[in-house]
Amino acid sequence: DAKTTQPPSMDCAEGRAANLPCNHSTISGNEYVYWYRQIHSQGPQYIIHGLKNNETNEMASLIITEDRKSSTLILPHATLRDTAVYYCIGTGNQFYFGTGTSLTVIP
Amino acid sequence: EPEVTQTPSHQVTQMGQEVILRCVPISNHLYFYWYRQILGQKVEFLVSFYNNEISEKSEIFDDQFSVERPDGSNFTLKIRSTKLEDSAMYFCASSVYGTSGGGPPDTQYFGPGTRLTVL
């Protein structure tokens, strides 16, 4: 399973795009990149996942570099409710959560 | 929208007692998981379960832990003799497909968790 590296914390102004980076330089060809978030102590919430193409859904966009060594989760218009810990997971057989990025959306 | 549910939301127990944490996975899902999160720490994988068998478990999942699907809807985690260090949030998750066997992993959907406090 790929080890992922994320900045420990980030701030974003409400209404702006939040761009959360993740490095996964050891990811193998068949490993997906998943993003989850955890609001306070609630259960992790699925956001989006991808293999090598960019992906978009109603919550976010995922941009994966061509070499697949890094990716960026984009929340296009951050709201206060997006304040959470965001986890980037490179998964082979299981989901291993790291320490994530604590995103604070500022009014 | 279907969701994973867990009961109780908070369980307080004395050290050495047995506890059973309950989960109702999403109805058409076939794979079930337990994770735990000690306060302030990472979410840690405990075990995955498919077709009435454990398919994978972590080092944390030792002999004091067991899982069961006693009927068609519930999925339980039993801790036989609780220790102080078992105090944590326990999350159940489910997915349609699994994450092993060479195929792509499937999205896991998590429940709200059970906070276990061992005194």
Plain-language structure description:
The complex is a heterodimer of chains A (107) and B (119). With 107 residues, chain A is mainly β. Chain A has no helices and nine strands. Chain A has strands spanning 9-13, 18-23, 32-38, 45-50, 55-56, 61-64, 70-75, 84-91, 101-106. A five-stranded mixed beta sheet of chain A has the order 1-9-8-3-4, with no helix packed on it. The termini of chain A are far apart. The model of chain A has no long low-confidence stretch (mean pLDDT 91). With 119 residues, chain B is an all-beta fold. Chain B has no helices and eleven strands. In chain B, strands 2, 4, 5, 6, 9, 10 and 11 form a seven-stranded mixed beta sheet that branches. Chain B starts with a strand and ends with a strand. The model of chain B has no long low-confidence stretch (mean pLDDT 92). Chains A and B meet through strand 3 and strand 4 of A and strand 5, strand 9 and strand 10 of B.
List the helices and strands and how they pair.
The complex is a heterodimer of chains A (107) and B (119).
Chain A: E1 9-13, E2 18-23, E3 32-38, E4 45-50, E5 55-56, E6 61-64, E7 70-75, E8 84-91, E9 101-106
Parallel strand pairs in A: 1-9
Antiparallel strand pairs in A: 2-7, 3-4, 3-8, 5-6, 6-7, 8-9
Chain B: E1 5-7, E2 10-13, E3 19-24, E4 31-37, E5 43-50, E6 53-57, E7 65-68, E8 75-79, E9 88-95, E10 109-110, E11 114-118
